[in-house]
Amino acid sequence: MRQSKSSFEWRKVTESSLFFPSIALALILLFDLIFIPGFFNLEIKQGHLYGSLIDILRNSVPIIVLAMGMTLVIAVGGIDLSVGAVMAIAASMACIMLNPNLVGLKLADVTREADPTYSATPLWAVFVVPLIIAAVCGLWNGLLVAYGKIQPMVATLILMIAGRGIAQLVTNAIKIIIYNDTFLQLGNGWLFLLPFALYIAAFVFVIAWLLTRRTSLGLFIESVGINSRSSFFSGIDEKKIKLFAYAFCGFCAGVAGLIAVSAIRTSDANQVGLYSELDAILAVIIGGTLMSGGRFSLLASAIGALVIQATITSMYALGVPASTITAVKAVVVIVVILLYSQQVQDFVQAMTGRTRQREVKS
Amino acid sequence: MAESDKDIITMEGIHKSFPGVQALEDVDFTLKRGEIHALVGENGAGKSTLIKALTGVERPNKGTITVDGKEVSIRSPQHAQKLGISTVYQEVNLCPNLTVAENILIGREPMKWGSIDWKTMNARARQILQGLDIDLDVTRTLGTCSVAIQQMAAIARALEISSVRILILDEPTSSLTIHETEQLFRVMRKLKSEGMAIIFVTHFLDQVYEVADRITVLRNGKLVGTYATAALPRLELITKMIGRSLTEFDEMIKIKLESSKLIKGEALLQARGLGRIGTIEPFDLDLHAGEVVGLAGLLGSGRTEIAGLLFGIDKPDSGSITMDGKSVENYSPLESLARGVALCPEDRKAAGIVADLTVRENIILAMQASLGWFKHLGLQKQYEIADKYIELLNITTPSADQTVKNLSGGNQQKVILARWLATNPRLLILDEPTRGIDVGTKAEIQKLVLSLAEEGKSCVFISSELEEVLRTSHRIVVLRDHEKITEFTGEVDEHKLMQSIAGSES
After folding, report:
1. Which residue of A15, A234, A236, A296 is the best one to mutate when testing the B interface, meaning the one whose CB has the most B CBs within 10 A?
2. What is the pTM of this model?
3. Please, are residues B226 and B29 in contact by the beta-carbon 8 Å criterion?
4. Which residue stretches of B7-63 are H helix?
5. Taking CB atoms and an 8 Å cutoff, what residues of chain A touch B361?
6. Domain identity same for B208 and B253
7. How far off is chain B from A203, nearest CA to CA, in Å?
8. Architecture of the structural domain at A48-331
9. Do A219 and B366 touch (CB under 8 A)?
10. Residue A87: per-residue pLDDT
11. ipTM score of complex
């Protein structure tokens, strides 16, 4: 009797949206445990925790933040290819607002003028304005998709291509070095032992979760993603739902852009958020949301982002050259896609089903 | 002559059931060489299932199929083609960006030196089309041709398969103009004279009488009969399609007559000159609290279109709706919900259920939509509502957390009904609520509609089954060719009703 109960719970675990991403993460960490000595070492230096695990957490923050927005967009049956470009726009915007005087100066001159407290615009605006612009970028995508009836892939491709150009325009195609200490805290600061950025990721996650699970938005997003016509017949305004998802995705891209540019201390419109859209989409897929839309789990997407970053960090630790990391990522993609394939799922179900049957017999 | 009279296909005792639905029950069907055989019946009658059994898409549970005197078990569409059975489907499923010739010979392109022999291919395509009396530049892109020509290309493609002797046309005329239809009929007659056996599936009875030699009528998955066209008057055909039996007027009629006393005098909803070009001609309609109004008419007569206008799926371009004496300004499902109007749509799969959501989520969906984004129903409240309707409507499901796609058709229909009942509507529009579900559930739903009226709700009941409409409706509105023809109140003379549906005086 107890046995059959435990098997019932096991089934529940395997059917949970967190099951596969957690397994993937555990496998990678197991690999690290066996093959990379000292990977799990943690030490406290000057009140900060250091170690590979902390590196994984810190570096995954932009992907986690992007994945929150991307999850909602994919759940309504769309996709947003422009998040990387929107990150660059937000980053350039913040940098130009911090110090517009730097535009047009030679790098050598700039270094002399460095002042860790200087900001041309009030600091709150340096944070808020880029986020608003990023949300507007998302809104634009949403308008094209929901009201313009353009295929999401095409609609967001427009901003993906144009976005980096816009980011270059903002800074006059010049890399601006960031000196403002407060702004640098975003990507480099620490709070209570942990990197400051982690708290931002947690904050965005909580916001996204509250917005979708404490209101009806989550249900509506899933409903529109599964069957938008039925949703329309049920009185759901599916266009507004889509608009919200894209705008939120843009906002998340803005947050990720600010963190990323703070971490590298330079506004480089060609580098900030490069290929990030692919990482974000991959994180959502690993998190188990179908590309066709429908059911989603924010936590599973966040774990998906950790899987990606854990892979990258492990490869670096093993000494794999940075240029070949993409090939390793491809292997992860293949493994995950296989795990999600119907055949493998049936196989797992058959396995758990079989053990259950055996117990019922005995 | 004797040879050409021989049966080419005999189907005997065909059974086919899907979860929760008996799609075909003991159906016999014969097809002769050189005849055009019309297959008619209302939606859910089993026409498409019968065709699918013949083309290898579905395999019957029971029964035998004999082709050319040999008993066969048709395994796949490819196998059906080998047996000489070729099908042209309702939607033209060709490639509009390829040329006509490419479309006709796709997958069977003549080859030369390892690449496609374009000359031979175009010549071959031209030859096939000329065989159909069509002169056309076969190198044109198919998408630039008229729908009729595209349809012809589809037929040409079906005929190109060597040794095709049986051609199945599944609603080929639904998107054609009158002129184009005539062109198609010419081709059909020509093929017939060459000995081709043609099965013609259609909803248009005029066309049946124009080209068909024999008619087979199906209803609710059962064979009604096969008749020579000349021996079957139009009215009799409709009677057979819709089905009617005087003995079946049971206690529901009594309930209905008694409840008719409860109908309120003043109208809950008034439509005046409401219409939409190309959808429905302007009509007037009054709906009262406590009343069931049936919409009767054949498929495509405008029943669903009226429902769509009343609920705000489509915006009218003429006329007005007044509800509670106030003129309606905004037309959208959400606005309608706020006014207390609900529509249970015709197409359960496409517009009804949200397949991957649970029973609970499906039930609360419309209620939650009317509450908006931020007035979120708590989980406990959701379960309360879901459990209430699962019990009330007798929905068979392991739990409220079951994914709705795992339920049978009848139970899915009840879930959608529950979704609308949960919004506590004053006007409930039910478009084909009983289609494709078993007889027991049908009766349950009919009784439910009557009891809702007794509670003081206004109901609009749309169904292809006339007996159902007769049994449940206090008043019947007849539609034909996108136009409201007339209304029947009180004791309805069925004969007159059917005449008015058919639009013939015979």
Report:
1. A234
2. 0.72
3. yes
4. 47-55
5. 219, 223
6. no
7. 20
8. Orthogonal Bundle (1.10)
9. no
10. 92
11. 0.76
